[in-house]
Amino acid sequence: MSKQKMKCPSCGAEMNHHADKVDYTLALNEPEAVEPDLGGIVEEVHTCPKCGATAVRRA
Ligand SMILES: [Zn+2]
Q: pTM here?
């Protein structure tokens, strides 16, 4: 469960894992990546403590 911290694309600071979201739109294009229990693709939302930028990556 140890994933690398995400770096802010704007200022390079380490971002905080803010939330998880489920994307149902992507699931239509990538059915093999779908979590069967959720019916969508799980993504992590990260926020930057320095500049407030947000970024999303696949969980
Ligand atoms: Zn930043």
A: 0.80
